[in-house]
Amino acid sequence: MLVLAILLLVTPCSYSQQPVHTHSRNFQLLYANRKSDVQFLDSANTLLKSLYSKGIFFPKDTLIQILKPYKELAWSGNATFLPYRTYYFDHLANNAKMRNKLGEAIYFFEKVEQERKLSGNADGKDVLMQKCYLYTQNMLLDKAVQEYEKERHYFEGLPDKIRNGKVDRQQISNALYTLSPIASAYSYAKDSAKCASVIHLSQSILSAINAKSGLSAHDLPLFKFILLGMKFYHYRNLSNETKETHNNLEKTGNLIKSLGPESQHLKPFFEFNLATWYLDYFTEHKNADSASYYLNQLIKMPPVMPEEDFNIMVDSYRLKIWSIRKGDSKTTALIDHLLQSKDTLAKRKNEELSDLLYAFTDAEFNRDELEKSRIDKQRRTIWALAAVFATTLTGILFYSISQRSKRKLKQTLSTLNSTTNLTIAAMKESHQQSLKAEREQFAQDLHDGFSASVAAASHQVQALIAETDDPALANKLETLGIRLQNIYQHSRAKSHSWYRDSLVRQQASFTETIRFITDSALPDSQYNKDIQLEPEAVSLLNFEQRIVLIRTTQEALTNVLKHARASEVTIFLFRADDHIIFQLSDNGVGLSLSEDKLRRFQHKTSGLGWASMKSGIEEVGGTFSIASEDGFTLTIGFPVRNTEGKTA
């Protein structure tokens, strides 16, 4: 049961089914009482890891609902929250693994891998480790070996990297946790050479660690146990060396006895695995009494695997011991045949269910994302139509009032022109926002849909190459596989390019809009204009904040035209620490107010335009201030953490 050992070492826990409503409430309280968004995200990560360590897991839809505020923050557009996208999918993957949903777990682990590659993070091969473990646990040994063979050169190069100090502890642990089930897979497949090669590679990795820095008191017994497990199955399944197998079991027992205080938490898991190894050894050598002893010891141990799986394992051992006691070779052969048939059937069903669950999870998850995108687009469209309708009504009202005199008419037409420019700018921003969402969705679909299909086709071609004995057909398949790989790489590169281009287009659209409004209001022949908008600062503004700044610019420039008697106007947008700052200033006459009146003006703003401007800025989480020294300066600030218009 080496596969079980890997489960215990990677995620040691006591399995238990517990109600989830209490834990759902804990997440709600975390979000409601958060001191900051980052503090909530970190606390949620810690709470989930704690629950998993206790064997507590959730139905998929329940966990997605619980993590809804977590996901909204991770995908809010704030660069600080980007790493939490990886953690989000990691939680869904580990939860699926706890529920033994193989296809679902593989799907979400691949999403983890995609997010890491998009963010440029170093690959410690932990996703590969999880895949190899999951496939081997479900007896899909061929798939585990295929995943390992893709990265075999990486593992073979680890000893040299360790000696050169280019590998950290986590990468070393991931490597050994990956090599252990692969050695098991090769031993069950009766491939002695490859199994021995994996064991030798594991020993080389441990030797390189010892030569470089030595093993810690915690890692030493853990890694020794993994290596002993590999050797046990190599001796048992391949070499049939009874003495070496028994000696290996005794070494494992001595290792358990020598565990220090810092490693006592590993003892239950080591003892559980050792008991299963003794059971395998004694049932194979027809020693019913010794096998019964270890079976009774196993039953008395604390549960370290799902109850249903444990009961099936115990019943299988009981059946083997019963056939040994009966002493009928035909009965024993029949029982062995039935157990092998059960394993073969379970393997086939696991593979079918895994593929079905992977496809179902992919379709369901993408459907939810598309529905969310559709609702967001619909909301923006309704907002734009409402703005156009409101602007039209305002224009009609101004027009009817202005009929009293030519002066009023001229003023109204000017207002309508400004309002129309503002409406056009707002609609352009809305249009760019919709285009950005559509391009990002299309890039995601290309990345997750088409690229995944091409990758699957490439894997199938590789499988056909391995199965065919026809050299000509194998050459043709090899050529097809290379073409599929080229298509896969091109589609992935294209999806990343579209994702980046959508952000650049959105930044350029906002900058062009500000310049258009400024140039329309202030002729070059009368005004010197300096407009500097930092692209990073633009990217950190959300849709509502950009619209508010466009409106504010329009209102402030109207004030310059009417009252300032200025010749220079500057507009700056930049990031200062954790704030985005927007400043519009001129060299005109200013407001000519006393300090007391200026303070009241800032806080109460008697004018309708200024009051509306201040209210709009505060509604999207901004601050508003004015100064009237050497001209007029309007300053607006947005906290970076509020770039989605939420209060921290």
UniProtKB/TrEMBL annotation:
> Got a GO cellular component term for this one?
plasma membrane
Q: Which residues form the Histidine kinase/HSP90-like ATPase domain?
A: 544-642
- MF term (GO), any: kinase activity
Residue spans crossing the bilayer: 382-401
Major localization listed first in the record, in broad terms: membrane
What Pfam family is a match, any one?
HATPase_c
Alphabetically ordered keywords of this record: Cell membrane, Kinase, Membrane, Transferase, Transmembrane, Transmembrane helix, Two-component regulatory system
UniProt feature coiled coil, ranges: none
- What is the recorded membrane topology of this protein? Multi-pass membrane protein
Superkingdom classification of source: Bacteria
Location comes to: Cell membrane
State any GO BP term from the record: phosphorelay signal transduction system
The name under which this protein is listed is: Histidine kinase
The species is Siphonobacter aquaeclarae
